[in-house]
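Reviewer comment 2.1 asked that we show a complete input and output for one of the modelled complexes. We chose the uridine-diphosphate-N-acetylglucosamine case, as it is the one discussed in the main text.
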Amino acid sequence: MKILSVVGARPQFVKLAAVAAAAAETPGVDHLILHTGQHYDPTMSDVFFADLRIPEPDINLGVGSGTHGAQTAAMITGIERVLFELKPDWTVVYGDTNSTLAATIAAVKLERPVAHVEAGLRSFNRRMPEEHNRVMTDHASDMLLAPTEGAMMHLRREGLAGRALLVGDVMADVCLRVSESVRGTPPPRELERLHGSPYVVATLHRAENTDDSGRLRLLLERLSACLVPVVLFAHPRLVARAEAFEIPLQIGALVPVDPVPYPVLIRAVLGSAGVVTDSGGLQKEAFLLQRPCTTVRSETEWPETLTAGWNVLDPDLAHPEVSVVREAPNSDQGKPYGDGRAAQRILRALTQ
Ligand code: UD1
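Response of the prediction step:
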């Protein structure tokens, strides 16, 4: 059986790591990887393949950055060409980026089966490009591989239960495996300048937070007022917008650093007093690693993280002094993201 995984952006490489490893262990599966080139900086792409031991992509379309229309159109054109040639039994798409939607459109129009990993997530915020990507991908795909009960519920409500399967969360598979391998190792070199002081890990990259100068300035000012250093792993989008708006990243408590490989980020979170982020993946990683998280958004696709206050939504960072540095809740989290074997279930579903 020939399975083609299509990825393009950083969080998709993490999800792919779990599926590629499970595919390699499944007899009779020929797993090919197409990278759209949506993310192309070595720190946003190559290091993930190397550190997570993902095989090199078989094809890289090198599409790069652009407006939503231009970027998605270039991907559809390139992916269609590859599908004509490879004729995979399954095209597997991940998450909610423009690469996800492009591959889905290209494949279903050629009547080639599509499976969506991380199906059924909803923010119900129609101003997010990712919300449109995930809704359209779910409705077009042939197999919907849901990470949580909540995602299954959304798919049922939208009349998609017949194509949906609860498999667990592939990001949890990878997070749990990597956290075991880095636990107890020395702190990352990026944190040496903190000389052992307690710190918070922060990321900001969503268009809704970075693309308006007033909003970006407000969020950075509020973060800079925290009582402990805030290590800001700065996505290229944040750096580009801050530069364009002439907003300094190195103010007050803020300690800006370049994006880091996945195991380094996990190690940084493990050693932190908490996390502040607008990333879906990092909210969940904070939860899995039992660190309190403050999410700079008014909604989340991962509501299970809100249990007992492990994650708190604070879209304007109105109270950074109380919300950002707080005690970890003393409660059992359960296992809402599965048992670390979601990828094996995905391979079973695809091959059966
Ligand atoms: C994309 C996804 C988002 C995901 C995020 C993870 C969409 C609509 N958004 O957002 O869901 O959470 O990836 O990181 O698909 N850039 C670089 N180097 C790179 C990549 C991007 O400099 O390797 C800069 C460019 O200025 C680019 C900007 O970042 O214009 C935004 O990149 P883009 O891929 O459009 O979206 P992300 O913000 O990364």
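The chain has a mean pLDDT of 96. We note this here for comparison with the apo prediction described in Section 3.2.
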